Amino acid sequence: MTIEVRPASAFEDVRTLVGPKSPGANVCWCLSYRIPSKLNNELRGPARGEYVAELCRTGPPPGVLAYDGDEPVGWAAVAPRSDTSFARSRTIPHVDDLPVWSLWCIRVRPGHRKKGISHALIAGAVEFARAHGAPVIEAYPIDSGGAKIDVTMAYAGIRKNFERAGFTHAADTTSVLAGHPRVLMRLDLR
């Protein structure tokens, strides 16, 4: 199996990874950290997908997708932190004033897990941010201390996977996900 990671500009493939099963649902689309909470609450049903379709058409795309051949099997959300709610977070600190990019969601489709796709997505997100001039990329994964994490809550990633990709611990946070602390991990791209 050869995994290729590409910019998420193909809306139908993004829909496959982060769109809800019902087009009228008011969930996911990986928007909760990307847009202000007021807008997130206002976007209902199909309007959520339409918003993401517009993100896919404009540059840069809203993240990266992993493909096994032509099949989309993974998603990673990555964007300038200034364009996300992390820019205003009270629980995740800013280490410095660099215009960092944030990597906050990794999703691998059922049936494709445990094949290294999340590692490919992290590497692809790093390259995507670097290609768009990011001096640093941050992630906010769960530090579970090796404890098992529910797969639905593992979207933030796990610390050891970011360490394997060369990220280093930059700060603790007061953010908690699935009962586990999240840490701020960074990778300098300069």
TrEMBL record:
InterPro entries reported for this sequence: Acyl_CoA_acyltransferase (IPR016181), GNAT_dom (IPR000182)
Example of a GO MF term: acyltransferase activity, transferring groups other than amino-acyl groups
Superkingdom of source: Bacteria
Domain called N-acetyltransferase: residue spans: 3-190
UniProt keyword annotation of Glycoprotein present: no
PROSITE patterns documented for this protein: GNAT
Keywords (A to Z) from UniProt: Transferase
Protein name in the entry: N-acetyltransferase
Organism whose genome encodes this protein: Streptomyces gardneri
